[in-house]
Structure of Conserved domain protein:
Amino acid sequence: MSLKKFSLLLLCLCLSLSALSARAQDTLGNSVRPSPASGDAAMHGRLVLLLPFENRSNDATVDWIGTAFPDIFSRRLAGADYLPLGREDRLYAFDHLGLPGNLVPSRALTIRIAQLVDADYVIVGSYKVEGNRITAQAQILDMAALTLTKPIEVNAALPDLLNAINSLAWRVVRKMDPHYAVAEQTFLAADGKLPPAAYESYIRGLIAPALTDQITDLKESIRIAPDFFPAWMQLGLAYFADQDYQLCAATLGHLPRYYSRATEADFYRGLSFFYLGDYAQAENAFAFVSESMPLPEVLNNEGVAASRRGQPAADFFRKAIAADPKNENYHFNLGVTLERQHDVKGAIAELQTALKLNPNDTDAQSFLETLQTPPAANPDPGQAIADTDTPLERIQRHYDGASVRQAAFELEQMQEMRLATMPAPQRATALVKDGDQFLDRGLILEAEREYHAALTADSHSAMAHAGLAEVRERSGDDKAAKREAKDSLALEPNAEAHLVLARLDMAQKNNSGAKSEVAAALKLDPGNAAAHSLNDALNQLETNKAGASKP
């Protein structure tokens, strides 16, 4: 993306900064602000190019594992405040250089690719499968110093592949940023209990050359793991590429609005509805995207869908032009709309602009000539002259995900600067709120990062410790969870920490201790829904126990 286009996009996005902040990145899914303790890592740069790992096993059946490393690394790095350049960005760079997508580049070519995408780091690696075990190595190429780290290695049983990749990702992040505070166990738990078979089917679907094979593998991944959102996303995109718009819209509709790629999903849902002739649904889908990301292509499409429904559309096209005045299609669409509103002079001006931007636009030239031709005399006064044959507005078919991620990254830097101006306790409160929202969406890595940042701002934040207690609970580290909960209560009584202790007691079948913790939580917060739910569960356990003890 050119610097000028990016500046325009960033300007457009800044218009919705307050709304985006209020949502805490619900639709972007990843907050990418540098952590306050990052030191040199924050100053160095956060753009990381991820390349597939080289298979050194002499066994083509495990080739798919090479793509698994950058896929998981991408999600973990995004959660760790980096801006990863993943598969789509790599394929773009390879295509730009005329390289096959499955090429394992040499060191010199890797540097050239990284320079093309302006990467600060490149992660390269290899793996070898022997019997039931895998050994993998990762190295970090620092583009500023042009140095390559020593290999970082993991060795694990093959069924434990996902944990091995997540562990390696954590060690890579720690190598790039020694101050990174998120625990390794949080990385291991970030995907929940994703079955390895579901993940393998997902990766195979991601890299399969034929659409039919992609769809088959991705459907199998979803069958095994119905809540694995990346598989739903890729399946929807496969249906879109296969022009099965009905299934595309239905599949992408399974994704929650807080999913990290929800805006992209709704863009393609909008296009699918549009191609199906359901313009109202199309407009609604595009409107969801534009609320969070007022991209010119989305505003344009929202206007096209509105126009198909006979609704006013000129304002959408004007906003698209304001964000990207060099796109001739937006001027063409505004010209078409203005002609329908009988503003022929305005329509001519827009079409002339479109032709200046693209002199080879034959449709714009033809329509302009029609508008500039004086109306012919009516040879038969008894017959009405037909209206001008107005063309249809043009839909934009491509969602520039790389541009969106880059712009979102820059927005987060701006938000971080705002946050830095707050007094420490207020900043900690804001960070805890962000962490709570991540935790509500199951993003424990991102949540832990925010809670650590809150404690950096204010080491006496009881709610940051309470948040960390729940993160530790969800990642399976009960001892650390109990310690964080008690640290939180020592600073300030709060229902959240009591509830963590209650759940831990329940898991250990200490129901009396759990009842005591729930009672303490309800005393502090009588309306706490989670406390009431837990209390009901404990009462039911007592009822069941009493019933079972009767003869």
In short: Strands lie at 47-50, 54-55, 83-85, 121-130, 133-142, 147-148, 152-157. The longest helix spans residues 529-549. The chain is about 60% helix and 5% strand. The first strand starts at residue 47 and ends at 50.
